[in-house]
Each structure stands twice: as structure tokens, then as C-alpha cells.
């Protein structure tokens, strides 16, 4: 991952680290790696979303571990000492700066022991469709609902999960969501 980090320009790397810190502070639901990857690629840098997701996971682990251990900036940099030879200089400078400026907010959080242990539901979209025909069946005329859930996993990476349901399945799904909403209102 260190060689992929060296591909990321300092400004994008600083933005990425800042987003991870905000995620760990529960200020944003996660890091939109798809959007950031698109912007990095538009700037002419060859990186894929899988590599960027690995970097997000590594940095999330680094910052959350540093928060759990209540490390100072110098302790964090010293702990990274074995990786100094593999991490690019600009990345170390950004990590030092971001941790110095914003690291205290994570360690001061009452959730510092449980930083980013579970994912978070971000958004839900649905659409109604009708399958008219297929290779094996000429006349389907079958209505269905496609649901797309946007979730941020424990590391903060935002992903979409899509699935299809029949109309009766969707009605049951909707009923269950209404039950959840009514229970949450009583809390």
C-alpha cells in the first residue's frame, strides 16, 4: 500500500486523512472513496478504487489505534518509525500534521475505545420496474422493486448494496421499516 500512497498527491492525501478523522469523530458517515478516486484519476493519477479502499482501511486502523492508545504526535511518528522507510515523506508529513491538529478530538471522544467498530446506514433509494421479457421467457410482465442501500462500513468506506424484491416482498419490507420507525420514536 505504501507504493500506492506515493502515487497520491499531498493535497488529496491530506483531504483523505481529514475525511477519515471526521468519520472517526462521527461527523460524516464515511469516506466516499468512489468520488475521491474519480477526482484523483481526473487529475491524471493512475489509481483504482480497490487500492484507495485499502489505503482508507490502513489509515482508519492507524488513526483509531492511535486514539485507543492515546498517542501523542511524536509517539505516533515514532511508532511509524519502522514504516518511515516505506512511506513517502509527504505522507508522513500529512499524518503528523493531521494528527497534531485533529487527533486530540478523537482521543477526547468518549467513544475512543470503540472508534469505528460498526458500519452506518447512510441512504436508501428504490425504484419500480417491470421485466418485459428475457432470453428464456417471451412474456414476463413482472413488476419488481430495486432497492439500493448506501452504507459506510467500519473503516468508513461508503458502498452501495442493491437487491430486487417482488411487490409483496417490498410491502413487507416497507411495513418492517414503519415498525422500526415507530419503535425509534418511543425511545
Automatic annotation (TrEMBL):
One Gene Ontology molecular-function label: NF-kappaB binding
InterPro entries, alphabetized: COMM, COMMD4/6/7/8
Domain COMM: 120-187
Matches recorded under PROSITE patterns: COMM
Family: Belongs to the COMM domain-containing protein 6 family.
Reported function: Scaffold protein in the commander complex that is essential for endosomal recycling of transmembrane cargos; the commander complex is composed of the CCC subcomplex and the retriever subcomplex. May modulate activity of cullin-RING E3 ubiquitin ligase (CRL) complexes. Down-regulates activation of NF-kappa-B. Inhibits TNF-induced NFKB1 activation.
Name the UniProt record assigns to this protein: COMM domain-containing protein 6
Species of origin: Piprites chloris (Wing-barred manakin)
Amino acid at each position: 500500500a505504501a507504493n500506492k500512497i506515493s502515487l497520491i498527491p499531498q493535497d488529496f492525501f491530506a483531504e483523505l486523512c481529514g475525511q477519515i478523522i471526521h468519520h472517526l469523530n462521527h461527523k460524516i458517515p464515511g469516506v466516499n472513496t468512489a468520488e475521491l478516486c474519480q477526482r484523483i484519476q481526473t487529475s491524471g493519477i493512475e489509481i483504482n478504487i480497490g487500492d484507495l479502499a485499502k489505503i482508507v482501511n490502513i489509515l482508519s486502523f492507524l488513526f483509531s489505534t492511535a486514539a485507543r492508545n492515546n498517542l501523542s504526535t511524536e509517539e505516533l511518528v515514532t511508532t511509524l518509525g519502522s514504516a518511515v522507510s516505506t512511506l513517502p515523506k509527504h505522507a508522513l508529513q500529512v499524518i503528523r500534521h493531521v494528527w497534531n491538529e485533529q487527533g486530540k478530538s478523537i482521543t477526547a471522544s468518549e467513544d475512543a475505545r470503540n472508534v469505528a467498530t460498526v458500519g452506518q446506514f447512510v441512504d436508501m433509494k428504490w425504484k419500480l420496474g417491470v421485466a418485459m421479457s428475457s432470453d428464456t421467457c417471451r412474456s414476463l410482465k413482472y413488476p419488481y422493486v430495486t432497492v439500493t442501500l448506501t452504507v459506510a462500513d467500519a473503516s468508513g468506506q461508503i458502498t452501495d448494496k442493491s437487491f430486487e424484491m417482488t411487490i409483496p416482498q417490498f410491502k413487507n419490507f416497507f411495513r418492517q421499516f414503519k415498525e422500526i420507525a415507530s419503535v425509534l420514536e418511543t425511545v
